[in-house]
């Protein structure tokens, strides 16, 4: 298990480094001059030159990249072109909002999706299975931002049950929770359907396996076989997909944050793109990538905890 | 002699895509107390369906006619819940493929503990029993094995674990469904040895399914030969091996490499193929492949008749009786 963990950590670091390199190159391909945007259209050429010099934008891509990598290692993500605040500080104050949104969204998707998937397998192609299937495909097909807008109109504007904007008052936990309900619903609903479908397919396949017949031959109840012995095996591919899908979920969170005017990495990235605020954009994407890599590492470790064949030292 | 298993006029029909598939037809068979019955037949002979019915593990879409009595209880007169209560207590099984029969993500010890769920005793006692049973089936480092997972064990070891699991519940009927087919010859010999040694641990009978006549002669007391879903011959092993009365039994024995005296380049085979259950020949089911076929065989299906200590379904028996 130890060598498996070390290998996974090393792999995660490699992925992170490659991803950051690619992102760095991609961002500098985006058209638009940050100096013009930061200083406004009436800034003189001399001012722009000075600005570029100050920010290191006049140097070659390679040098900028080298500096950036060194800075990232020291925990310095650069300075906001507009407010002159350290990017790290901006990103770190936005990060908890997004992390909580993504985790609650995924959390309730898992809590609902797994039982729905299990229920589907009681009688495959029975009416319950078909009903759950219909629900699942519908919510998978619905884009998160569309759902967010309708949820806003119904629950905030018409019914006035839930707040519409922001993340709530910092100190008031209840208020923050109320502000979390709708965005988390919007982020996670598609995932309820997705996880339900995955669990159904995976569990049905596992229930066909020979060791399930062994348990049945020993008279163990179908209920116990399914939940105690087949479900953990069925969850292995589902866990892997959830890890990969967390990246998807983060991009879903970006749109939802914009709709609900919530602070977070999504809103931060969106503003940065509009303002050509490269350091902020880069910092946001780097932290998002890191989150994604951490999520994958976590799901790999969960899969290894379930399945001894994965943690087998090879 | 008290019979642990009585199979009376059992037919098994699967719901096929187009038409019902009569996989097993009208089987009459009994297994005596403390006897090992070898159930022999080619692939598609219906032997797996028959043991599936004894284990009440056939798919819900299959129809079972007739009666299967295990320890006096009519299996298909019981409720599904009562049937399940017999599994893992009255009946236990060792399955064909040791590589897939155990749960890959649960340790051996934990699985052996689970299999004893119908038995009384504390968790600690059950684990202790499991360890002892592993030692009895010839696993040396039982303590280590209990903590390991199936993928860490060889095929032979896994099959020993599976046998230990079945024996742990001290069943009245142990069904071994081709437990050696997936194993190499050396391991097969060891597994047969273990079952022979352990027959005392079964407080009843063993049904050993195989397609290998050699295994039957080494292990079993009685033998039942199935062909295309029907019982063609049954009797004590010594009798059937010495005097195979049904041409199919004789042909099976002729195909057993261990019984061939003269060395030759090719193995004998039975010409033709087993008929599909949905497309059975008229008369005797073996008639299209039978070397001794005569006119009556193609018209009329032979009934199972006594011939010495054996029972045989062949017109030749009646003809011989008539001649005598």
Automatic annotation (TrEMBL), chain B:
<keyword id="KW-0067">ATP-binding</keyword>
<dbReference type="InterPro" id="IPR003439">
    <property type="entry name" value="ABC_transporter-like_ATP-bd"/>
</dbReference>
<protein>
    <submittedName>
        <fullName>ABC transporter ATP-binding protein</fullName>
    </submittedName>
</protein>
<dbReference type="InterPro" id="IPR003593">
    <property type="entry name" value="AAA+_ATPase"/>
</dbReference>
<dbReference type="InterPro" id="IPR050388">
    <property type="entry name" value="ABC_Ni/Peptide_Import"/>
</dbReference>
<dbReference type="Pfam" id="PF08352">
    <property type="entry name" value="oligo_HPY"/>
</dbReference>
<keyword id="KW-0547">Nucleotide-binding</keyword>
<dbReference type="InterPro" id="IPR027417">
    <property type="entry name" value="P-loop_NTPase"/>
</dbReference>
<keyword id="KW-0813">Transport</keyword>
<comment type="similarity">
    <text>Belongs to the ABC transporter superfamily.</text>
</comment>
<dbReference type="InterPro" id="IPR013563">
    <property type="entry name" value="Oligopep_ABC_C"/>
</dbReference>
<feature type="domain" description="ABC transporter">
    <location>
        <begin position="5"/>
        <end position="253"/>
    </location>
</feature>
<keyword id="KW-0472">Membrane</keyword>
<keyword id="KW-1003">Cell membrane</keyword>
<dbReference type="Pfam" id="PF00005">
    <property type="entry name" value="ABC_tran"/>
</dbReference>
<dbReference type="GO" id="GO:0005524">
    <property type="term" value="F:ATP binding"/>
</dbReference>
